[in-house]
Amino acid sequence: MGGYAVDPWQSVRRTLGVAACGWLAAMLTALASYLALRWTWVPISVGVVLCLAFVVALMLLHRAAWIALLSAVPGLFILVGAVQYAPELALEVRGVRESVVIVADEAASTGGDNHRYTLRTADGAELTERLTYNGSAWAPEVGERLDVIRDPEGVVPMEQADEVDATGRLGGLGAGLVAWTLMAVLAGWRGHVRRRKGRTDSLLLSL
What we know:
Keywords: Membrane, Transmembrane, Transmembrane helix. Helix content is about 55%, strand content about 15%. The protein is α+β, with helices and mostly antiparallel strands. Strand 4 (about 145-150) and strand 5 form a beta hairpin. Helix 4 runs antiparallel to helix 6 (about 165-195).
């Protein structure tokens, strides 16, 4: 069966456009995180929608779905990095480090996995802010001593000190974007080949 004439420059433009969409999704999510430090659900919602949009664009570019499915892995790094970088950077810059002991846990009375810990500092003062932890795996227990970093302005939620790593979040974000860019290049090339062969009627898991 003969091939089809496909403009290679059009394929290049499509590839660059999809790669740019990935970078734009990350930047917009990070911007939403910076502007909505107090409401973490805002950048999470924005990031999920934009990441899904990139996955769909990658699938359409490739005319197959397996690269798009694989892109969900670096997409998770991008989402976590873009959402967490701004608040963790704020804690590193202006946060106050405290050595505390857990004196109470609301989840103990409700039986749930959404923990809200009451903390007491080394000098016996009880913090008004509660440390939250969702899930049962590796959850701190009452009586356990922790180092936490809290925002004196009360904008960014308190976090355990060993979990605050803005540089690591930025590194994960960058690694995810590099992976997305390479995937866009591969998808653009494979999509160009599929279109040239006339294989444009399926979005199945085909090579």
